[in-house]
Design a protein that fits this description.
With 381 residues, this protein is α/β, with parallel strands linked by helices. It has two domains: 6-146 and 342-378, Nucleotidyltransferase, domain 5, CATH 3.30.420; 153-335, ATPase, nucleotide binding domain (Nucleotidyltransferase, domain 5, 2-Layer Sandwich). It has 14 helices and twelve strands. Strands 1, 2, 3, 4, 5, 6 and 12 form a seven-stranded mixed sheet that branches. Strands 9-8-7-10-11 form a five-stranded mixed sheet, sandwiched between helices. Helix 12 links the parallel strand 10 (301-305) and strand 11. The longest helix has 27 residues, at 269-295. It is globular.
Length: 381
């Protein structure tokens, strides 16, 4: 029987907290996917400051309760902003989607307490956009013993099949998403979802660099890695950081609160950025080595996506250290996929899978006890 093709909108606001990615796709929730349109909307200065303030306020579950009124206030501002840009985006496209996948903005993630808090009021967004909204993608996975992250591997599996078919790229493939945290989907083959995809958070992505830039300048991030490229790595501080910090296991999801920049205190803007970039690259490379050890296989095809792929300093350090004769490192854009919008496209896809009651996480991607559904369907219009 022919599967229904849905038009779905995905919303993603990442740990950089600088804005929102919107993606409109067509998909059947299974094997068919077509990208239609993408757009980035930057937060206004006040909302950006509010979100950064909120993240600083919420460092543990007690903070989440203690600051509940502040959370609600900023959540409303965040939702109104999203309703405005989604309406603008859809009016421009002349399309009413079947579904909206609302990831929201993560402000706290703690696997131990089974809490993953993303702000974004799905009821209000549904009312304002007159659309069916799906949110809360992580909770069922957490309730089933999973880490609640990463959630994109099922979508990575789908696009890896398109890449293999269209560009003859051989498995196994590592799809490396460098966002605030770096996560990797290892696709061993394209035959069986539960067996052939594995996923891991492996270390920081942009989070350390972004925090350093925000706290030591009036900029939000190191555009193109230019500040790091103008600085000099402090080898003494870098080696101390390497000696004093280790990620013991890849079985647990990571949060930006797992890392800090205090070891770079006292360095200039440029030297601190260069040192933190080198440290980030080191941890990513160590994570990739651990993945090879887990599977007892050398993965030689790397595809990089996410905002961090634009940081030339970071990417050059990764490429220089993984490059050997049979290793190929590709930017996902080389395969006619927009690397800025893979996650927002993923949440459009996950929304359809949720609507169809299809699993979105698996024991090999989040360590959940069994394949798990995810998402809450909201229709409030």
């Amino acid at each position: 029987m022919k599967k229904k093709i849905f038009t779905s909108l995905g919303q993603m606001s990442g740990t950089s907290m600088d804005g929102v990615d919107l993606s409109l796709i067509e998909t059947d929730g299974y094997d068919y996917f077509k990208q239609k349109s993408n757009k980035y909307y930057e937060f206004n200065d006040q909302l950006y400051r509010d979100l950064i303030f909120l993240r600083e306020c919420v460092k543990n579950s007690d903070d989440l309760q203690k600051n509940s009124s502040i959370v609600s206030e900023i959540e409303k501002k965040f939702t109104l902003f999203n309703a405005k840009i989604i309406s603008e985006f859809l009016n421009r496209e002349g399309i009413k989607p079947d579904l909206i996948g609302l990831h929201g903005q993560t402000i706290y993630h703690n696997v131990k307490y089974k809490i993953s808090k993303q702000i974004g009021d799905a009821n209000l967004l549904s009312q304002l956009t007159k659309s069916t909204v799906i949110n809360k993608f992580r909770q069922e996975d957490l309730d089933n013993g999973g880490q609640g992250a990463p959630l994109t591997p099922i979508f990575h599996f789908l696009i890896s099949k398109q890449i293999k078919d269209n560009y003859k790229l051989d498995y196994p493939i590592n799809i490396i998403n460098i966002g605030g945290i770096t996560n990797v989907t290892t696709v061993l083959n394209n035959q069986n979802i539960e067996r052939d995809i594995h996923a891991y958070d492996i270390g920081p992505g942009n989070c350390l660099i972004d925090e350093w830039i925000r706290k030591n300048s009036n900029q939000k991030f190191d555009k193109n890695g230019s500040i790091a490229l103008s600085g000099k790595v402090n080898e003494l501080i870098l080696n101390q950081a390497k000696d004093n910090f280790e990620i013991p296991t890849l079985k647990e999801s990571m949060d930006i609160n797992d890392f800090d920049i205090t070891f770079a205190k006292g360095l200039s803007l440029e030297d601190g950025c260069a040192t933190l970039t080198e440290f980030t690259a080191f941890l990513i490379l160590e994570g990739l080595k651990k993945i090879n050890q887990i599977h007892n296989i050398d993965v030689n095809n790397f595809i990089i996506c996410g905002g961090g792929r634009k940081n030339k300093s970071l990417i050059n350090k990764i490429i220089q250290n993984v490059s050997k004769e049979n290793v190929i490192v590709n930017d996902i854009d080389e395969f006619k996929l927009n690397g800025d919008f893979i996650e927002s496209q993923a949440f459009a896809y996950l929304a359809v899978r949720c609507f169809l009651s299809l699993p979105i996480t698996f024991p090999n991607t989040t360590r959940c006890k069994k394949s798990s559904l995810g998402g809450q369907i909201i229709k409030n219009f």
